[in-house]
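Task: fold both queries, return tokens.
Query 1:
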Amino acid sequence: MADVITHDFSDAGAQAVALAAHVAAQLRGAIATRGHAVIAVSGGSTPKAFFAQLSNEALDWSAVTVTLVDERWVPDTDERSNARLVKSVLLQNEATAARFVPLYTGAATPEEGLAAAAARIAALPAPFDAVLLGMGDDGHTASFFPGGDHLAEATDPHGKAKVWPMRAAGAGEPRITLSLNALLDTRALYLLVCGAGKRDLLAAVQQGVAAAKEYPVRCVVMQDSVPLAVYWSP
């Protein structure tokens, strides 16, 4: 099982401030050491406060590349686009100078856009300096959805592909996602969790209780490649 360290906060604001400070320090260190930094982030509503806080952190954003953990297969004009969220909330203020690498390519389907998206990820410096994950009520993380058509391949710890298309009943739109191996190829791994229900879900996943043994997020919790820092608030 991963070395899991949980940081608890009284509210989402304090959680966002602490996580942004920690990630900013990670990025500054990477730039000082290697001249650049790469971070992969998740979408959804949970990271908005973190994105807003991180966008105001003072660092050399021109040396930072931001990409996505996963994406709905929609253009960034769509309200459900993760790229749209990142551009409108994270790539603001101090962070306007950062480079953004989207996963959506404009192809008709994620399967048709897979090669181009994979090439974009393969061209990034590796490992990532930070990866930010979230978790759904159904136990998904990234686009590792229960019943996903490529769930087994995407979460295969020995898989070679860095990017997979994903279709699942709970996913809404067709999606594209980084593989487990790609996500774990990072110097720092974060899981941002809000709400008592998700804290209980995560505890059940860690303990392997009942149905939680099958939740996709368990592949992140149970791996032993990289420590997992959980940031939780009510």
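Query 1 returned. Query 2:
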Amino acid sequence: MDCQHVRWSMRMKHIAAVIVVTAVLLFTQTYTSARGAEYKIPQTVDMTPVAEEPAELYALSAVLMDGESGRVLYEKDGERPLANASTTKVLTCIVALENSPGDDYVQVSQNAASQPEVKLGLQKGEQYYLEDLLYSLMLKSHNDTAVAIAEHCGGSVEGFARMLNRKAKQIGCKNTYFITPNGLDAEDENGKHHTTAKDLALIMRYAIKNETFLHIAQTRDYTFSEITGKRTFSVHNANAFLDMRDGVLAGKTGYTSQAGYCYVCAWEKEGKTFIVSLLGCGWPNHKTYKWSDTEKLLDFGDYNYEYETYWKEPQTGKILVTDGVEDGQDIGTKIYLRGKCSVTAYDREKEVLLKKGETVTCKIEIPQKVSAPVLKGEKLGRIAYYLDGKLIDFYPVYAEKSVEKISFKWYTEKVFHDFFHSLFDNVCNFPSCITFADTIS
């Protein structure tokens, strides 16, 4: 019986050990605490792919972009520099809106009036309201209108081109160089007029944040006159995709012999915003290729991507402070403080578009130790969120309290304090030490 009891006891201990080890392994796989921690935030919704990634597109270069974050969700040679024709006018419109009021008088020059088709038919010396010309620019893509706007806002076509390129850099474009405001093929000592599908998507993403731009881009028909009222014009929106799919926010077509058919658009559905940009999407007799490619890319984005909340409550742990003193602690005592990550309720609900299988990784990027002095509220590190190795968001981590640095003054005060405290204790504990009551008795 004793042997059986021993074997039973050993077996139970073995089972308990296996359970403990298994639990530890499961825990360490899901979360690693303290500094440098990295853990994955699981998906909470079923995102089974419905549409396959587009295997073939007509466009030489294409990008599908998340309109909220600017993240590229799909690309085909997305950073290849190519001529982009009248899609240039998206940036022309937004730069004009940001630099001149809509009720400005625009005087037509001979240079503007002599631009090739497609054009409104401006005549030298005429005047128009800037706002009216912006409808002509975006709805019918008139080349003479673009030059008149450029000369008014930039002083000259060259001056306005500098404004365009400066704005493109501010938006985040990496390989865009515009020479003309209308997108006609051009070349100078710095290169050819061009952009990339990725840069063009970034430009549209920026433009749709402007309410006036959206209103213009969504207008079907617009009528206006030159300022004296002698001539009246009616323009119809050439962006056929507005009527091909609900939720189109804005779009701009383009064509030149070098660029081929080009298109850029923004589309919104159920809170998701997608940008599609296409360059070199067919040449004459293939005018509809751009609609086919746009449909494929938007379907792919809509069916495969859903919003996921990526916030995870951080566990920063303790941070060791060296060469510090706190509340009179002795030299050499370890002083610890905690990091604090201040976030709002809105931050805790932040979302990112994810495809099935994609995971957001959270990293706690704070040091194991810091040197005093440390001030309350001092930045110590950050809680960072990564997707596919790219930083998508972060929150600073601050010190919860201050820690004073050990100084000569502190040393001096401590020596005096310890010396006199020790002396007082020795005197009071000396055998001959008597009290006043003992003396008078």
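Both queries returned. Flag for query 2: The longest helix spans residues 2-30.
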